[in-house]
Predict the structure.
Amino acid sequence: MSESEKHASSPASIGEALATLLRDGWCGLRFLLGWRPPQAEIRASVARGALFFPLFGAAGGSIVAEMLILVGPEAPAMRALLPVALLALLSGGRPALDLFRFLGGGILGTLFLAGLLGAEAWAFLNLDGNLRVIALVLAPMLGRWAYVVQAYGSLPARSDGFAAMMVRHMQFTQFATASVCAMALSLMLINALGTLVLFLVASLSILLRIFTHRRQGGVSGVSLGAGAFLAEAGVVILIGSIARLAAGS
């Protein structure tokens, strides 16, 4: 074994690699909670920590599900609105704001965002028991995965923006790890329906990515957040719609 190989496999090197991984994961978690770091070095750390995004989303959704089980709201309005509010709070409200800004704000942005939130509340009204818990776990998990799908292999709209650092430092390792986690958890939680949910999120993310590249030359921090919010809401609406159809039949 060469000296370089010995050094690479030394306990000190392994410890440094683990410390870097934990730091990247911590920065990624803070980003998903609504924090937007100004420093380029920390932005790069957020991108490297993207391999944890689906796991963080699933963990956050599990916490929301447990909170709702403990609270146990009986009124239909609370059963519909409280999950929507808690999921928005889980991300610091940033993705919803990003979608509003992506649509240009104004009346169009307000109406579209209100309609999407209303559809999400309607979906939760149709979800009960395990299916409700599954939706609460899957939606934030796949919404966070959408960040990775949009950023990997894209071009940034601005060379100095946050998205530029995400694109530059989003390597295959992050994309592959995050994607395998998202796919495995989806199929484990909801079996064959997980394939449909994954297809929805991937399609939304890729279509938005194509649109932003044509419209503004690449992805931006706002478009990444908008895509994450669309994916999260889309998962809830899809599962709620399927539950409604199943109940009607």
Observations:
- Residues 80 and 125 are 5 Å apart (CA to CA).
- Residues 3-248 form one domain.
- The radius of gyration is 19 Å.
